[in-house]
Structures are given as structure tokens and as C-alpha cells.
Fold DUF2306 domain-containing protein.
Amino acid sequence: MQPETTTLSQNTLNNTRSKFLVSALNGTALYVLAYYLVWALHQAARFYVSRFYHLRGNWDPSRIVYTLSDGEWWRTAVVAVHGIGPVVCLGLGVVAFRWFWRSERAKRGNFKLLLLWVAFHACNAVFGALLADTFIQSGFWYVPDWLFRLGNVMNVTLAILAGLAQLALGYFGAVAFLQAHDSKTVMRYANRQLMVVCTLIVPWLVGGAFIALTKINYITVQEFLHLAMMGLLVTPLALGCLNEVFSDTVRKPQATQVAWSLVGLAIIIALTWRLALSPPVAFG
């Protein structure tokens, strides 16, 4: 009887590992898709506002770079072009989370997790970006600096508050993140540490590395910091998941299998983004 028991146990272990690997791959694809959706809207909004104010610049795979001299800027233009992206992302994040919470969390499938990653990336495009951009005094940092003109101490204070807000939102998002998964094996509390690694840490690190590689030769320190700032959300989110005993899922969960359509779509969008903006698109 012992060999049979050992075989069954090994099969169960292999099946569990397989499900977590699948979850990690699908989660990474969703992470990348959500990233490009959020930042495409962010930069598209900035591009159109820039054209509205007849500003000159170039749009490359990593950022929009302006070719105006310091004397050609005025307060309204600075606040508008650097503030429109975060405003759009804030609205997108609220819509995505409400959609998830009210309509999708009790349904099966990957769409609900995509909505949640969109909400998380949108959060990072506001709070994480303000903190990151304050370090290098660029991007979103220009908005409070030119809008309030209260000095560097106030700018740093606002950035720290933004970082704390991101930490808090990450921790309190744990229950929502747990409800975004179908697999009973993944949701089992005994597997919670493995779940955190495969569905949170791996998508953040591997997804971020993939995004950076597809923007090689263009990626900037600013975008590296934006990708890193997701850690301010992912880390407390992971801690919240570890502390939360919630382990229920939908009654008839979707089979745990690789969503090749999502994986392929993530790769296609990343490459299309690179090709469409390389060489950079000039405007103005």
C-alpha cells in the first residue's frame, strides 16, 4: 500500500505545482496587459492635451519628451499636460474597481483579475508616480510644484502622503485580490504563501522585467521607478493576503489552464507599442 500512497501524493504535489505555474503565467500576462492599457490611456491623454496647447515634442515607447525651452512654458500648460494622465488613470482605476466589485468578483474567469490589475496599475500611475517623480523632479511632480508653489518641503510631504496612500490601498485590497481567483487549490489557505509568490511577486517582477526589455534603448530612470513603485502596492497586498483567512471561491471555478490567448495578446501589444513608437512620433 505504501508505494501507491506515495504515487498518489506525488501526483497531487505535481498537480498543485502545475496549477501554481499556470496561475503565475496567466497572472503575468494580465499584469502586462493592464499596464499597457493604463499607460496607453495616460500617455494618449497627455499627447492630445499637448497638441491642444500646440506644444512640441516626441513620443517614444517610454515617455513623451518635450523640445520646448524653459521660457516657452506657462503655468496652465505645465499643470495640464503633466496632470491629465494621472486624472484619467484615477478615473479609470475607480471604474475598474467598481466594475470588479459590483459585477465580476462572483463570476469565474480571468476578466475579474484583469480589472483588478487595471485598478492597481491606475493607482500606481497616480500615487506611485507622484512619489517616484518627486525623487527626480519630473513628470507628475510638476503639477503640485507649479500649481501650489509652496516649495520643496510641501512637494516632498505630498509625495510621502501619496506613498502612504499606496501602501494602505495595497493592504486593504487583499480581500478583493483573493476574490479574483477561481482555483480551489490556489485559494486553499495552506497554500497561501505559494499563492502570494506566484500570483503577486512573479507577475510584478517578471512582468516588469518583460516591459523593461520590450522598451530597451528607450526606457528611462523615471519608468524604472514607476515599475518599482508597484512594490509599494504589491508588498502590503501580499502581507494582507497572508493575514487574511478568506479562502472561498466561485462554486464552479473555471479549469486552471494556460490562457494562451492572453499570453499572446500581452506579447503582441508590447511589441506593437514598441514598433509604433520607434522611431519616436514627433508632434507640434
